[in-house]
């Protein structure tokens, strides 16, 4: 019985493949599109600092917890909680994760579509026709208001995710991540050098790296926390699902460290590309979701071989988005395969279609539905806010409590130390302390101060 479901489930080919796939999930639009614009909106360096603390104290321990849960149970998030504490309310964390997967992919697919469009538009050269970021921003604004175009590329993005996820873990997801992640890092590095050598770049570096503590308030902390979860793909079981395809002989602690480091480095690198350019070009850092799409085309337009670099960059951005999109889809798909007995071939297209439909109002949020507001935000921002700033941190909080207090750190040690993997003693102890006390208390405090502020 188990073997049959395992055939449907699949497995990673190697440890490196796992690390790259998990990094592929983590590194995505969260790092390249979202991180710079929320740093810009929330005060620069101070936000970056709070973000880094969240990653270390909250993100890394939860990632290890999710990997461990996944590998122990070989199941999707719902099945994982159910197997460890059968018939208990803890299974709700799994359902929340599947719901978060639905919601996040619905708007993620829209932005993924924008990146596809920018690949095409840099090949035709239309995004490179501007010498000021203001004009490039207006071009972007009119593009995302164009219903037909936005929905077309949105559908294309979802189609690409379907094409990969339907082939399963080893053949599809793994192959896609292996070459692309290292390439992305290389091109960002190149762009950083370009950005730093622009006139007036240093002002941007100062905004980005020099913290102004007056700018930290509870809202900033909540957003930084939400971003840490979003960027590391935590709090919704994506890492449980990816861990479930991992073989017993791999060392979970080092995998966690690599993925966290890689994701954080890419985000920091992107900031070093964007902010020097923003300031050098006299643009506002608090530009919002259009930031990357208006700043970078102007940088490309003004550099030698700019069009080639633009094409490569947007292709990589699109790919980074796909490798994350597939992990969101995989969570929902794995649930239907493991718990509901669906076949992969059926689960993938049916679920994707529903998610696409749910994403349509998000796609229209900058055009036809721009005036439809709830809580002062458009549909797109509402879905993002509910999923990233509430569902993920609450899912993470409950996962931390579940793993350390219900399942128990003893059992976790057994799983981590399987096959003689002896993780570094210091790291194992500090992890245990973090996940038991610091992680849940920190998330709790952020929420309590947010509610009673
Ligand atoms: N981490 C991804 C990114 O940064 C988004 C994501 C969130 C993926 C949650 C899976 C789960 O783009």
Walk me through this protein's architecture.
This protein has 453 residues and is mainly α. The chain has one domain: Amino acid/polyamine transporter I (Up-down Bundle). Helices cover 77% and strands 0% of the residues. The protein is built from 18 helices and no strands. It has helices at residues 2-9, 15-26, 29-41, 45-73, 77-84, 91-124, 133-144, 147-165, 169-196, 201-209, 218-231, 238-243, 252-280, 291-301, 306-338, 344-363, 379-416, 425-452. Mean pLDDT is 88; it is low at 1-7. It binds phenylalanine (PHE). Phenylalanine (PHE) binds next to helix 2, helix 3, helix 11 and helix 15.
The CATH class label is: Mainly Alpha
CATH topology: Amino acid/polyamine transporter I
Assembly type of the chains comes to single chain
What proportion of the residues form beta strands (DSSP E)?
Answer: under 5%
Note the main sheet: none
Query: What is the H/E string?
Result: HHHHHHHHHHHHHHHHHH
Q: What Rg, in angstroms, do the CA atoms define?
A: 21 Å
Q: Tell me the span between the first and last alpha carbons.
A: 52 Å
- Name the structural class: mainly alpha
Total helical segments:
18
Question: How many E strands?
Answer: 0
């Amino acid at each position: 019985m188990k073997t049959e479901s395992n055939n449907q489930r699949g497995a990673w080919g190697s440890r490196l493949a796992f690390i790259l796939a998990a990094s592929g999930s983590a590194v995505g639009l969260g790092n390249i599109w979202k991180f710079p614009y929320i740093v810009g909106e929330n005060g620069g360096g101070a936000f970056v600092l709070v973000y880094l603390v969240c990653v270390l104290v909250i993100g890394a321990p939860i990632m290890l917890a999710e990997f461990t849960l996944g590998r122990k149970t070989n199941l999707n998030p719902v099945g994982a909680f159910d197997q460890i504490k059968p018939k208990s309310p803890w299974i709700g964390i799994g359902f929340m994760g599947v719901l978060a997967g639905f919601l996040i992919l619905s708007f993620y697919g829209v932005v993924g579509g924008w990146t596809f469009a920018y690949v095409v538009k840099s090949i035709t050269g239309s995004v490179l026709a501007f010498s000021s970021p203001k004009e490039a921003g207006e071009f972007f604004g009119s593009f995302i208001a164009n219903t037909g175009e936005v929905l077309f590329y949105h559908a294309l993005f979802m189609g690409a995710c379907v094409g990969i996820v339907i082939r399963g873990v080893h053949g599809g997801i793994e192959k896609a991540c292996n070459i692309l992640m290292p390439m992305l890092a290389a091109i960002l590095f190149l762009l950083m050098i370009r950005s730093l050598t622009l006139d007036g770049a240093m002002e941007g570096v100062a905004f980005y790296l020099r913290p102004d503590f007056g700018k930290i308030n509870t809202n900033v902390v909540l957003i930084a926390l939400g971003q840490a979860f979003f960027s590391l793909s935590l709090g919704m079981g994506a890492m449980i699902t990816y861990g479930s395809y991992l073989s017993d002989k791999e060392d979970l602690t080092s995998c966690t460290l690599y993925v966290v480091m890689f994701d954080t480095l890419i985000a920091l690198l992107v900031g070093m590309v964007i902010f020097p350019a923003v300031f050098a070009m006299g643009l506002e850092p608090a530009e919002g979701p259009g930031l990357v799409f208006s700043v970078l085309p102007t940088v490309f337009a003004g550099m030698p071989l700019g069009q080639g670099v633009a094409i490569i960059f947007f292709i990589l951005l699109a790919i980074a988005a796909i490798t994350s999109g597939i992990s969101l889809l995989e969570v929902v798909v794995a649930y239907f395969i493991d718990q509901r007995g669906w076949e992969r071939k059926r689960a993938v297209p049916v679920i994707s279609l529903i998610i696409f439909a749910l994403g349509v109002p998000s796609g229209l949020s900058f055009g036809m539905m721009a005036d439809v507001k709830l809580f002062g935000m458009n549909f797109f921002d509402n879905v993002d806010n509910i999923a990233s700033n509430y569902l993920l941190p609450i899912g993470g909080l409950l996962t931390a409590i579940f793993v350390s207090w219900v399942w128990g750190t003893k059992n976790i040690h057994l799983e981590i130390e399987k096959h003689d993997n002896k993780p570094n003693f210091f790291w194992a102890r500090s992890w245990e302390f973090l996940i038991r006390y610091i992680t849940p208390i920190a998330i709790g405090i952020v929420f309590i101060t947010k509610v009673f502020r």
